[in-house]
């Protein structure tokens, strides 16, 4: 310890951190980023419908109006809106969203935002494949979505959304025990985040699964909890 102290007294002091004239406090940077994302979303609300009206989507993953966070949000909404009405169209939109999310440069957005975009795009692809009864492909897409967001603690809610969709797909392949475990795990996450919609969806899925297993009394209790 004495030797180390002696060394410290002879070492020159570290150079001062350079002051960057244009640096901003973290909170201010956050609000500027949020304002930029809101503007992207508003722009995309006009661009996305107009672009998707074209009959030929070749090369659309390079279309500048679609290569934004806001555009991917609107593509996801388009998948949800058409999922039961026209699942093949929903699949085409989801495939386009995945192609865009995977082709964006890594520095386009913060790492967490990039992970969220990739995860949600792959999740929507999985949902489209599940509705078309392509369960193995759906589960593969969900696994890719899960891997995209799993390492980011801030995306715990997004991870629960993905894992809930895995649980629904597992029901369709008669993997009931695995589905039950995921549903109950996701229900806890949605409760913690005060996501009533997510919590109710989990409860309905749980009741449906109990009905499939002919556990009608337990299914009734699950539905009563939701009421």
Summarize the structure.
This protein is mainly alpha-helical and 227 residues long.
Key terms:
disordered N terminus; mainly alpha; 227 residues
How would you characterize the overall build of this protein?
- It is a single chain.
- The chain contains ten helices and no strands.
- The chain has 227 residues and is mainly α.
- Helix 3 packs parallel to helix 5.
- The N terminus is likely disordered.
Which strand-content bin applies to the residues?
Answer: under 5%
The separation of the N and C termini measures 67 Å
The helix/strand class is mainly alpha
**Share of residues in helices:** over 70%
Succession of helices and strands: HHHHHHHHHH
What does the average pLDDT come to?
Answer: 85
Radius of gyration over all CA atoms, rounded: 23 Å
Low-pLDDT windows of residues: 1-32
* Secondary structure tally: strands: 0
Described by the principal axes of the CA atoms, the overall outline is globular
Sheet bearing the most strands, described?
Answer: none
Q: Helical segment tally?
A: 10
Write the layout of secondary structure elements.
Elements lengths: L1 H9 L15 H27 L16 H14 L4 H17 L7 H21 L3 H15 L6 H17 L3 H17 L3 H17 L3 H11 L1
């Amino acid at each position: 310890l004495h030797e180390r102290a002696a060394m410290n007294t002879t070492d020159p002091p570290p150079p001062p951190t350079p002051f960057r004239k244009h640096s901003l406090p973290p909170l201010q940077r956050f609000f500027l980023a949020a304002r930029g994302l809101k503007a992207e979303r508003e722009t995309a609300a006009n661009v996305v419908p107009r672009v998707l009206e074209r009959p030929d989507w070749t090369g659309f993953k390079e279309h500048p109006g679609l290569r934004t966070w806001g555009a991917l949000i609107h593509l996801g909404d388009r998948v949800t809106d058409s999922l039961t009405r026209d699942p093949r169209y929903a699949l085409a939109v989801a495939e386009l969203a995945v192609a865009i999310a995977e082709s964006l440069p890594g520095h386009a957005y913060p790492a967490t935002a990039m992970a969220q975009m990739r995860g949600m795009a792959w999740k929507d692809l999985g949902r489209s494949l599940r509705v078309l009864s392509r369960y193995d492909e759906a589960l593969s897409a969900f696994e890719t979505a899960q891997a995209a967001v799993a390492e980011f603690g801030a995306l715990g809610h997004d991870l629960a959304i993905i894992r809930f969709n895995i649980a629904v797909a597992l029901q369709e392949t008669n993997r009931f025990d695995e589905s039950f475990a995921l549903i109950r795990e996701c229900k806890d996450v949605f409760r913690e985040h005060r996501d009533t919609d997510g919590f109710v969806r989990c409860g309905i899925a749980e009741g449906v699964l109990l009905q499939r297993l002919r556990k009608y009394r337990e299914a009734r209790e699950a539905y009563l909890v939701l009421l």
